[in-house]
Amino acid sequence: MSSVLVRLRPTGPWRIGPDSGDRDRVERIYHSDALYSAVCGAMSRLGALDEWLDATARSSEPAVRFSSCFPFHHETLYVLPPQHIWPPAASSKVRWKGARFVPLSVVESLLSGKPLSEDSWTVDGESECLMPSSAPLGSTLFRATVRSSAAIDRAGDSATPHSVACLEFTPGSGLWFVAEFSDDQWINRVKAAIRLLADSGFGGERSRGWGRSEAPDFRDNPTLLAN
Hints:
The protein is an alpha+beta fold and 227 residues long. It contains 4 helices and 11 strands, in the order E-H-H-E-E-E-E-H-E-E-E-E-E-H-E. Strands 1, 2, 3, 4, 5, 10 and 11 form a 7-stranded antiparallel beta sheet that branches. Strands 6-7 form a two-stranded antiparallel sheet. A hairpin with a 4-residue loop joins strand 6 (121-124) and strand 7. The longest helix has 14 residues, at 32-45. The protein is globular, with a radius of gyration of 19 Å.
């Protein structure tokens, strides 16, 4: 069994639609089903869709599995913490339950029974991430914003304004996920599909250039947790 950790560094806004479909809201996680759908589209463009579906959706033992996409900042990977260890006991200094995402190192510490220092952490309300208290004031991984635009009819006689929410990532931040392979023949082909998606875009509003990223960073067989 092989795996690849993929980091995507957005070059502009990303639109991850919520389950409600509300255009003025945006999800913070690019879920695994949406990622799989995007890869299917890329495989179609690469001429490998039928073979890909036979190896994944049509197979009782899929050759490739994806995690959802979670935030990262430089070398720090964030995840949703397991509910049985989060939040820690109430604190007078840190509102633990305000953190939706925590570093993998925090999960590892809690699973090994090590308490968190109240003086070492703070919660960023903008991104809902648990961040080191040493981070500069106002630091965040991403911001949810609403952008307005207008659709012009073909004759140019009228415009229909509309707005849509998106995520705007700060330098050094982005989204990461893990692809797991039971058949190594798909590793390079999935990497090619991800490179194509980085150029063409993930998520919504791709016609506006949203959802694109720098060249993906691939790390083979990563060790995420010691436990």
